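Deliverable D4.2, example record:
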Amino acid sequence: MLYRQPSDYAGASFVKNASFAAAKELGYILTRTCMLNQNAQGYWQTGPQSEWLITDFAIDAGFYDTRFNTDFAENLLNAYKVYNNEEFLNALIKYCEFFKTHAQNHSYTTKSGGLLVEDYGHEKAHTKTHVSLNHQLAELNLLYNMYELTKHEPYKELADKMLLAVEDTRDQWVLPSNDLNYALFYTGTYNTMVDYPYLTYNDLYTTKHLLNIYFNKTSETIQYLMDSKMKYMKEKGITGYYQ
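Output generated by the structure prediction step:
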């Protein structure tokens, strides 16, 4: 059975645990099978219609979800390192080129020239969507990883602009409860927009780690957001976050 969800969580898990034969074989076939669903534009469509997206943004079935796609792109990156299959790298580059175009055409520019990239897209006309922090971070993390792999400067340039946008808007992300605001620019009425228990913290943790190991630098904003989310998680007894 293959569940055709763009991020392919099962395949990604097998790839990460490819130290034993069954996981290595299943990781390869699940990742490659899902990879072949990449469309001509370079992304993986979400097939079902979302009642939320159709109601608030007129986004129909077959939409582009930046988080699902970016998670699968990270899987392709891991799979390329494990299996050394050029197909995985080529599909990954094709997606990153698509994302660069999406980011330029479907984003909000912040005061210092940063880019907050819309979470969703569709080939058909639709309303501009919001920008959630977890999507933004996952995307810039992928771009930094791709820069480390390929040394293709535009990946780093776009990631830097996206990080700058988070820094420009740092005070808009923290709520009085110390939890993080799920998204900016959300004008719809269907979704309550509550941040995940620890997913966004893990994305922040990854950003901090990549900045350190790749560029020997830190971001005060990333640390500030991590500290705020950590206070909230401890108050609520939330576990499962990276340490």
